[in-house]
Amino acid sequence: MSRITSVSRNGDGRTAIAWRRRLPSSRAMSACSGSGGPPAPARGAVLDGRDIGTVVCPGADVKLFITASTETRAARRVKELREQGAPAIYEDVLQDLNERDARDTERRAAPLTVAHDAHIIDTTTLDADVVFERVCALVARALEEKEWQQ
């Protein structure tokens, strides 16, 4: 596992990032607009985040909004934490997710919303292999359409 993946999947890293990202100036500076934020990702990059398709890279060729019920997300997170040897109580994780979702959807700067041109994939009843297959098919189709248009 890469250091970046390890840090980004770490609960402490998520919390630290979440606190910093609540600041409207931080959200605006992070946009790939050339106004002080990071440069736009190279072609073919895959980015993960709650405002990637609406704020950070609104012009992305393919946008996915991958979701699941809060209960399913909590159960998956508890399993992930326990596999890492961390204690996890389902009710606490569920509450944390509900609070985070509320914060992200209600914030003034870059609230969590589905991009108008995003493909929505509800993974509540799907396993990772099925989701991967659907994502690959969507990306392949988008690339074919883009080639055809050129």
Report on this model:
There is one protein chain. With 150 residues, this protein is mainly alpha-helical. It has one domain (3-149): 3-Layer(aba) Sandwich (Rossmann fold). Helix content is 55%, strand content 5%. The protein has helices at 3-9, 11-21, 24-30, 52-56, 70-83, 90-106, 128-149; strands spanning 64-67, 119-122. It has a two-stranded parallel ribbon with strand order 1-2.
Query: How many structural domains does the protein architecture include?
Result: 1
Tell me, rounded to a whole number, the average pLDDT: 80
The CATH architecture can be given as: 3-Layer(aba) Sandwich
- Using only C-alpha atoms, the radius of gyration works out to 17 Å
Uncertain segments: 1-10, 15-20, 23-37
Helices and strands: which structural class? mainly alpha
Q: What do we call the CATH homologous superfamily?
A: P-loop containing nucleotide triphosphate hydrolases
Give the distance, in angstroms, between the N- and C-terminal Cα atoms: 38 Å
Could you name the CATH topology? Answer: Rossmann fold
- The coarse overall form would be globular
What strand order characterises the main sheet?
Answer: 1-2
Tally of contiguous helical segments: 7
DSSP summary, beta strand count: 2
Q: What portion of the residues fall into strands of 2 or more residues?
A: 5-15%
Q: Return the string of H and E elements.
A: HHHHEHHEH
Major sheet size, sense and barrel closure: 2 strands, parallel
